[in-house]
Design goal:
- The complex is a heterodimer of chains A (477) and B (215).
- By secondary structure, chain A is α/β, with parallel strands linked by helices.
- Chain A contains 16 helices and 19 strands.
- In chain B, strands 4-3-2-1-5-6-7 form a 7-stranded mixed sheet.
- The longest helix of chain B is centred in the C-terminal third of the chain and has 14 residues, at 193-206.
- The chains are: A alpha/beta (477), B alpha/beta (215).
- At the A-B interface, α2, α4, α6, α11 and α12 of A face α4, α6, α7 and α8 of B.
């Protein structure tokens, strides 16, 4: 019999019951909540006269719709300018208070984007099942968790039962061997993967990222990669445990100490795919193939190396592709064949659950240091992913680097990744963005998003257009 | 939950691949703390010429005359005909809520994004999977005939056209059962409370760090 994949092991260890109809009951170890997808779930609990099954599994924080402006944030929930958003955050506070769920409130140390907060507090640990009403929950898979997004009905289901009715996914392994070149970051690696397999390439699969590129990558880098598994269609992205995983977890707030730590590490070290495990789907890339990536279209699969040009209609193999390309080019205001580096940017956003951790802040600051934002660029938002990231960045003086360069240093939250708050693009504006989705209207009605790494986004801010960070102003990487 | 057994209704098109949930219901409408009322803002950015605001009355907004679901012939459509990877992106359940609130009972597409597909079943909305060739046939028939209707039979797992095509579709037994009977999935899981407690006891002995840390 073939060995087990990491996903098989995580699945098996959380199986409560296998039903005869092919469905399974899976136990959930950690449930992360935020203001946008939880209110209807709590309301559902009340309407059915139910209570949360367990309290010590849940952890909550507001992130999606809160302001990143310091003056507004200092006024707390009561001072939120958007009344509809204020009610939503207040509802989260009220629900958490009512049931006794641990919440990091709007300006409390610990607050942050759910997928930045969970790992940095040690609330998510290797071997756990982690769910959240947010599709980027796969981020936590960087710690060898089985983590995925759920809808609001399932948020209610987990609150009420600590379980989900699930069907086992297929196993996919994406192997990237070799060593990435200078200026090529985890964001570039995952964008290249999405470019190769497509936005639906991982549908019905759990992806394990394997190979030397991921072994060499920091845990924060692995989070960037796992975060975007959903942009390749996979709900789940994972990296097996290694010493980096253990080192990352050690000493974090909710991680066990003493004997229990030793016991946990022993278990966690087994969270790797067996050598003879069989995957349903295998994808292989080589690090040499990967240059800094930029999306030019309206789906994350519409991506190219920064040195390339926007595709042309002639290159498309069928009508459906031609139609899709035509629509994307029209929306983006681009011409087929135009050099990617010729695209001017109006705004720059560095943040989101994909790229707002301390290493991302450092990478952006390294480019911004001693430079100025181009006069043609209207705004550069630097939004740290959490209060802890913000504090660390300020302790390192990164905030001063950004401010000196003419960039805005903001308060933690999801911000312009999905533009639920005041941070948004105007119609027709191009944005160099470190977020995860370039869908039509995602960052603002009519806005045009170009996904890239933090270093590339900072370089675009200075140059005023998309630019290869490797050749930028004498080289900065 | 609302049950689904069989449905016959007018077919409306969403003729593009990779329709994402941001397109189905843009983010500003996610600020609501309710489950209902999203129908007027379904496909908001494609449907209207101006930018939609949560809570605003949509009845006097300028509509996009080029958006097919605004064509008079598709008014009252209750079956959405779509292309591959429908519902990709965000996990927002507001997407099926908006489709259902607009008046759709079923979607037909060659494939769906996983989270969206799952969310549909929680809301009495049937996502039917047919092959690309079958979906092409339905698009062609719909384009050729005003007032084009389809019949969907969940117990038999078929989509039937008036021209005589009978297309079978697959879905999981559990999901089918829940949808047919409008079952409360949480209630079903709570019947397994003893199994859940047994699992927790065994797990707490093996992996005690999973319990009790967050207070």
């Amino acid at each position: 019999m073939a060995g087990k994949t990491l996903y098989d092991k995580l699945w098996d260890s959380h199986l409560v019951k296998q039903n005869s109809d092919g469905s399974s009951l899976i136990y959930i170890d950690r449930h992360v909540l935020h203001e946008v997808t939880s209110p209807q779930a709590f309301e559902g609990l009340r309407l059915a006269d139910r209570k949360p099954w367990r309290l010590d599994t849940n952890i909550a924080t507001p992130d999606h719709n809160i302001s990143t402006d310091k003056t507004e944030r200092d006024a707390g929930v009561a001072g939120m300018a958007d009344e509809v958003s204020r009610i939503q955050v207040q509802t989260l506070d009220d629900n958490c208070d009512l049931y006794g769920i641990k919440e990091y409130k709007i300006n409390e140390m610990g607050q942050g984007i759910v997928h930045v907060m969970g790992p940095e507090l040690g609330a998510t640990m290797p071997g756990m099942t982690v769910v959240c009403g947010d599709s980027h929950t796969a981020t936590h898979g960087a710690l060898a968790c089985l983590a995925h997004g759920i809808g609001t009905s399932e948020v209610e289901h987990v609150l009420a039962t600590q379980c989900l009715v699930a069907k086992k996914m297929k196993n996919m392994r994406v192997t990237v061997d070799g060593t990435v070149g200078a200026g090529v970051t985890p964001k570039d690696v995952v964008l290249a993967i999405i470019g190769k397999i497509g936005t639906a390439g991982g549908n019905e699969h759990a992806i394990e990222f394997a190979g030397s590129v991921f072994r060499d990558m920091s845990i924060e880098g692995r989070m960037t990669v796992c975060n975007m598994a959903i942009e390749a269609g996979a709900r789940v992205g994972m990296v097996a445990v290694d010493q980096k995983t253990i080192d990352y977890c050690e000493g974090r707030q909710f991680v066990p100490k003493g004997d229990m730590w030793v016991q946990a590490v022993e278990y966690w070290n087994g969270l790797v795919s067996d050598g003879d495990a069989v995957f349903d789907t295998e994808v292989v890339l080589h690090a040499d193939e990967i240059a800094p990536q930029v999306t030019w279209g309206t789906s994350p699969e519409m991506v190219a190396p920064v040195t390339a040009s926007v595709p042309t209609l002639d290159e498309q193999s069928n009508d459906e592709q031609r139609k899709g390309l035509e629509r994307a080019l029209e929306y983006m205001g681009l011409e087929g064949g135009q050099a990617i580096e010729s695209i001017a940017v109006d705004r720059v956003f560095i943040g989101s659950c994909t790229n707002s951790r301390i290493e991302d802040m450092r990478a952006a600051a390294a480019v911004a240091k001693g430079r100025q934002v181009a006069s043609s660029v209207k705004q550069v938002l630097i939004v740290p992913g959490s209060q802890m990231v913000k504090a660390q960045a300020e302790a390192e003086g990164l905030d001063k680097v950004f401010i000196a360069a003419g960039m805005d240093w903001r308060e933690p939250g999801c911000s312009m990744c999905l533009a639920m708050n005041a941070d948004k693009l105007g119609a027709g504006e191009h944005c160099a963005s470190t977020s995860n989705r370039n869908f039509e209207g995602r960052q603002g009605n009519g806005g045009r998003t170009h996904l890239m790494s933090p270093a590339m986004a900072a370089a675009a801010a200075v140059a005023g257009h998309i630019v290869d960070v490797r050749s930028f102003d004498g080289g900065v990487v | 939950m609302k049950a689904f057994t069989a449905h016959r209704g007018l077919v409306g098109p969403m003729d593009r691949a990779n329709v994402d949930t941001d397109m189905i219901i843009p983010k500003q409408f996610l600020k609501s703390i309710k489950r209902s009322g999203f129908g007027p803002n379904l496909f908001d950015e494609l449907r209207y010429m101006d930018e939609g605001q949560p809570g605003a009355d949509c009845s006097n907004r300028p509509v996009n005359p080029d958006f097919p679901l605004n064509f008079p012939r598709f008014k009252g459509a209750s079956v959405l005909l779509a292309r591959k990877n429908f519902g990709c992106g965000s996990s927002r359940e507001h997407a099926p809520w908006a489709l259902e609130d607009y008046g759709f009972n079923a979607v037909i597409a060659p494939s769906y994004a996983d989270i969206f597909y799952n969310n549909c079943f929680k809301n009495g909305l049937l996502p039917v999977i047919l092959t690309e060739e079958q979906v092409d046939i339905l698009f062609n028939e719909m384009n050729a005939e005003e007032g084009y209707q389809l019949s969907i039979d969940l117990p038999a797992q078929t989509v039937t056209t008036d021209s005589g095509h009978v297309f079978s579709f697959e879905l999981d037994k559990f999901r089918k059962e829940c949808l047919l009977n409008g079952l409360d999935e949480i209630g079903l899981t709570l019947k397994e409370a003893d199994a859940i407690k047994d699992y927790e006891a065994q797990r707490a002995a093996q992996h005690p760090w999973v319990f009790g840390a967050i207070k």
